[in-house]
Amino acid sequence: MQIKKILWPTDLSGNAEQALPLVESLSKLYSADIHVLYVIEELARHEPWYGEFDNAHINKILEWEKEKAGERLDRICDQYLKGCPLYIKETAIGDPAEEILAFARKQKIDMVVMSSRGRKSRFDFGSVAEKMVKHSPVPVTIVPYVQS
Fold first, then answer.
1. What is the pLDDT of residues 91-100, one digit of tens each?
2. Most distant CA pair in the chain, distance
């Protein structure tokens, strides 16, 4: 098996960053590209909020989050992934697990490396990580969450 594309899906939390040392190490070992993916959860999936938002307001919120996520991804990549051959930052909107799976298929990712839980998980094994292990078309390496 050749590993040329590694996907690190992130929710931009400290928990997700725990996978970065392994991502960087594997990238150097295999001279692999790192694809960094942040998924913005679609606001329409949530319960109605107080008052009604129109589509323009929702789009404005999504654009703001996409801009802030891009800035955070730039900082993370500059801080942690400087020594890697190539890293590509992407964002998507939708259900995190579904978007990560679709991205892995579309980009022909060879391996996914992610933390066992993100910022929302209170359990040992997050729902997104569990879905990835169960449904991914490629190997998924889960880095255990270590509380500091």
1. 898 889 999 9
2. 53
